[in-house]
């Protein structure tokens, strides 16, 4: 029965996209809703949209505490360069940036591996899943947690090349930026931004592999609420930390390609390469 439902969902998605292509948007919307309803029925025993929202709420409540702004900074230097992340809301252009940047001979993008998720799980095993451990970070514990991250990241690099820079791309790592910044104050973030209406609608129309976070895209209202929650926590991080970040708008990449990519390369301190245009 499940395989029949999956086939039916695929058929309806094709219909929805077809109606969208010929400009019959009300029909398209109706069929996207049907496809998402089938997706929910297939996956509802394994997903819980509230879990993702609670994860954000937990971090929002923690990081708005004034104690966070008074954290003592420690020496963040280690043998490895500070990590670089591509973050943003799903369907905001992170994959486009990945495709462009990986064409540069000195850049390797690690695409959507759960490195940060696994890193945080490993840390939580040691600190009983409580964010309060972040108040008590010292140089020794920071060094230990940094090594844990690089060990996990380097498993996803085929051949570590000292001349290359490595970018960890996972859009919703945006939720964990506070934890990342506590351990890596000098981390760099490329923040992909797209018009909220386009972004939210695109998420609703996309057939994502279901998990707790993606289950927020099965209807338009939930998609908009999830977008709001994610953007609010990023704004909280921006107001709380001095973040080494560069925001790139999807629309600018499309309309003014070379200037937009050159600005990102300047941020990464990498020279322009002709390979980018190939």
From TrEMBL:
State a single Gene Ontology molecular function.
protein-tyrosine sulfotransferase activity
Q: Which residues form a coiled coil?
A: none
Record GO cellular component, one term: Golgi apparatus
Q: Could you confirm whether the keyword tRNA-binding appears in this record?
A: no
Which keywords are on file for this protein? Answer: Transferase
Xref: PROSITE patterns: TPR
SUPFAM superfamilies with a match to the protein in the record: P-loop containing nucleoside triphosphate hydrolases
Query: Which Gene3D superfamilies does the record match to this protein?
Result: P-loop containing nucleotide triphosphate hydrolases
InterPro entries annotated for this entry? P-loop_NTPase, TPR_rpt, TPST-like
Q: Which protein, by its recorded name, is this?
A: Sulfotransferase domain-containing protein
**What organism is this sequence from?**
marine metagenome
């Amino acid at each position: 029965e499940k395989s029949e439902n999956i086939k039916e969902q695929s058929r309806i998605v094709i219909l929805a996209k077809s109606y969208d292509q010929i400009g019959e948007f009300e029909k398209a919307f109706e069929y996207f809703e049907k496809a998402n309803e089938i997706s929910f029925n297939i996956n509802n025993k394994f997903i819980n949209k509230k879990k993702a929202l609670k994860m954000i709420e937990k971090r929002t409540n923690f990081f708005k505490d004034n104690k966070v702004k008074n954290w003592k900074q420690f020496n963040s230097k280690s043998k490895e360069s500070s990590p670089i992340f591509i973050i943003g809301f799903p369907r905001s252009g992170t994959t486009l940036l990945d495709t462009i940047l990986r064409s540069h001979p000195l850049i390797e993008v690690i695409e959507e591996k759960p490195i940060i998720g696994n890193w945080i799980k490993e840390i939580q095993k040691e600190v009983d899943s409580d964010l309060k451990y972040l108040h008590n970070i010292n140089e020794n514990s920071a060094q230990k947690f940094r090594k844990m991250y690089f060990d996990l990241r380097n498993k996803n690099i085929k051949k570590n090349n000292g001349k290359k820079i490595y970018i960890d791309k996972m859009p919703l790592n945006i939720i964990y930026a506070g934890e990342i910044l506590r351990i890596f104050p000098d981390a760099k973030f490329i923040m992909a931004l797209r018009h909220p209406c386009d972004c939210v609608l695109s998420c609703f129309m996309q057939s994502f592999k279901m998990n707790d976070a993606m289950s927020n895209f099965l209807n338009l209202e939930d998609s908009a609420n999830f977008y709001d929650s994610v953007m609010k926590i990023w704004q909280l991080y921006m107001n709380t930390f001095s973040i080494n970040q560069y925001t790139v708008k999807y629309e600018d990449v499309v309309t003014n390609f070379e200037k937009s990519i050159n600005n990102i390369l300047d941020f990464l301190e990498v020279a322009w390469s002709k390979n980018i245009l190939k």
